[in-house]
Amino acid sequence: MSEPARHYLLLSGGLDSATLAGWLVERYGASAIEGVTFLYGQKHAVELQAAIDVAAHYALIRHRVVEIPPIGGSALTDAARPLPQGRDLTAVAGVAPSYVPARNLLFLAFLASLADAEGPATLWLGVHHDDHTGYPDCRPDFVAAADEAVRLGTQHELRVEAPFVHWGKDRIIAWGLEHVVPYHLTHSCYQGKRPACGVCDTCQARLAAFAAVGAADPILYAPLPKG
User: Fold this and answer.
1) In a 3-state reduction of DSSP, which class is residue 1?
2) Looking at the domain assignment, is residue 223 inside a domain?
3) Which end of the chain is least crowded, N or C, by CB within 10 Å?
4) What pLDDT digit, counting tens, does each position of 36-62 carry?
5) How far from chain centre, in Å, is Cα 154?
6) Is 163 inside any structural domain?
7) What is the pLDDT of residues 181-212, one digit of tens each?
8) How many domains does the chain have?
9) CATH code at 107?
10) Dist. CA 110–CA 87, nearest whole Å
11) In what order do the strands lie in the sheet with 7-10?
């Protein structure tokens, strides 16, 4: 079977999906790629503008925004549950407070429905190695199972791909810097702040990954409290 000519990208506006956008454009061309951004009650909904900016930068064939009912059960979506700040990420274990229950499963189901209505396609997500511990729906076994479920459950036998699933964030950034991914347009802060807070888990992971490759993060961060 020949490879589908259409590609649907889960485009959050964050660093990983922006890198995947660049990765896909290099391989298939912008005219073959549609970015899809989901609004699901996240505290950092400002990432939508980042997704719009990344899609415009790469001139994707289309950028679609899909709003679904809010997903509860997460510090990322529940106003009463604060996001952790200043944690030592090398010492944390278990599911992350910011894990949104079955988020990627829901996204892929919606994405498969959109794509299957239009013809053969591949669905792409930017999950990576560093999220395997805290996020069950970012693990290789999940990607493989989702690929099989989507293939079996769609008329066009759609496929799911996650090329960074065994990469660390530093490797993703290294590739992105080499290929001029517009990281200045991206947003990662889970608190939804601009400038970014610098102390939530995603800010810390992002800053550490840039430091690991010896590069400066091009986005702005709020000054850290003194003392």
Assistant:
1) coil
2) no
3) C
4) 999 999 998 899 999 999 999 999 999
5) 23
6) yes
7) 999 999 999 999 999 999 999 999 999 999 99
8) 1
9) 3.40.50.620
10) 33
11) 62-67, 33-39, 7-10, 122-124, 159-161
